[in-house]
Amino acid sequence: MSPSLQTFSYRLARPGYSVFPGAHPGEMVGSGQLFKRHESLLASPDPRRIDLRASLLDPFGGYRVRVFQQHSKLNVYAVADLSASMGSAGIQDKRQTLAELVLSIAESARQAGDSFGFIGCGERLDDRDRLPAGAPMPAVRRLTDRLRSQAPQAGSAAMAYAGPLLPTRRSLVFLISDCHFSLGSLPAILQPLSRHAVVPLVLWQAAETAGLPDWGLVRFQDAENRRSRTMLTRPALKQRIADSFTARRQQLRQGFRRFGMEPLFLTGPYRAELLTAYFLGQPL
Questions:
Q1: pLDDT value at position 184?
Q2: What's the CA gap between 152 and 185, in Å, rounded?
Q3: Are 73 and 113 in contact (CB under 8 A)?
Q4: Mean pLDDT of all residues belonging to the chain
Q5: CA 130, 133, 139, 144: dihedral to nearest 10 degrees?
Q6: pLDDT surpasses 60 at 141
Q7: Nearest C-alpha neighbor of 94 from the set 83, 78, 104
Q8: Other CB atoms closer than 10 Å to residue 258's CB: what's the count?
Q9: Domain locations in the chain as residue ranges
Q10: What do you get for the CA distance between the two ends of the chain, in Å?
Q11: Cβ proximity of 201 and 100 under 8 Å
């Protein structure tokens, strides 16, 4: 692992379902330390786990065996917006932040014994922007090198089609986007993901909401369609722009919460401890 590669800790409160042992609470019974229930010796033929007290209390006179909850392996996916606005490079380069995020998520999953996969979403889905769950770290690094250098796509319409590409079993999904798309498209993106534990990571540049002069000519450019417009800034306009971002943040938060998802807004350099703190305070 590169010394500069940041990792974080994550957990799921609700159990997952996997036949492979791992680090997360599971729905299957097997090896583990968390008592789940009693079963008959016939249903669970392991005499080492016979509970004598429960057997004596059995009205049918049978032997009762303790079974335990098995911890499970988890699929961890990053679903990323690859639209033009995600390619903007200001004080904070979103492509660099995206690459750091993907590497951090992949390495954190590897350390937890989980499988990592990636789905990149531009105007359409492209097999070159996808990695299956269980991809090795060299493949992840090649992907992130490509994300740093490739030309941004026109839009992010493919985000609405990422859900069917995920496993049917409940997975942990990091949805990475700056959310500079129509709020009307948010339900179409989130509904197919609702069976999974989704962590929306909203990447905003600090320069998008700050740094405007009180007075002066400023050239604004739409990050998606590249159209530009020169405007005379003044204190009232500067405040209106700041208020619009505050309102947008609240609208996005409400939109995600309708689907039981709590977004995390990242506006500075990537810091893995922010994700660790998120999971410590957010049951999923």
A1: 92
A2: 20
A3: yes
A4: 82
A5: 50
A6: yes
A7: 83
A8: 10
A9: 29-69, 75-277
A10: 28
A11: no
Name the DSSP letter for residue 3. T
Report angle CA 249, 250, 252 to the nearest 5 degrees: 65
Closest CA to 76 of 157, 16, 153, 159: 16
- Confidence bin at 73 (pLDDT 50/70/90): confident
What is the distance between the alpha carbons of residues 114 and 42, in angstroms, rounded to a whole number?
33
75-277 folds as Rossmann fold (3.40.50)
Q: What is the pLDDT of residue 93?
A: 80
CB of 34 closer than 8 Å to CB of 67: no
Helix (H, G, I), strand (E, B) or coil at 194: coil
50 phi/psi in degrees, rounded to 5: -65, 130
Instruction: Pick the closest to residue 72 from 105, 108, 31, 116 (CA basis).
Output: 31
Contact 264, 122 (CB under 8 A): no
Question: How far apart, in whole angstroms, are the C-alpha atoms of residue 143 and residue 29?
Answer: 37
**Is the pLDDT confidence value at 234 over 80?**
no
- The count of residues in the chain is 284
Q: Half-sphere exposure (CA, 13 Å, Cβ side) for 79? A: 29
- How far is Cα 262 from Cα 254, in angstroms, rounded to an integer? 9
57, burial (CB in 10 Å: exposed 0-12, middle 13-18, buried 19+)? exposed
d(CA 36, CA 29): 8
Please name the amino acid found at residue 216: G
- Answer whether 0.85 is exceeded by the pTM: no
> Which pLDDT belongs to residue 152?
74
- DSSP type of residue 125: E
Tell me the pLDDT tens digit for each residue of 7-61.
999 987 764 444 444 444 555 555 555 666 788 887 878 888 888 888 888 888 8
- Token output for 244: 């619009």
Inter-residue contact 219 to 186 (CB < 8 Å): no
What is the percentage of the chain residues whose pLDDT exceeds 90? 44
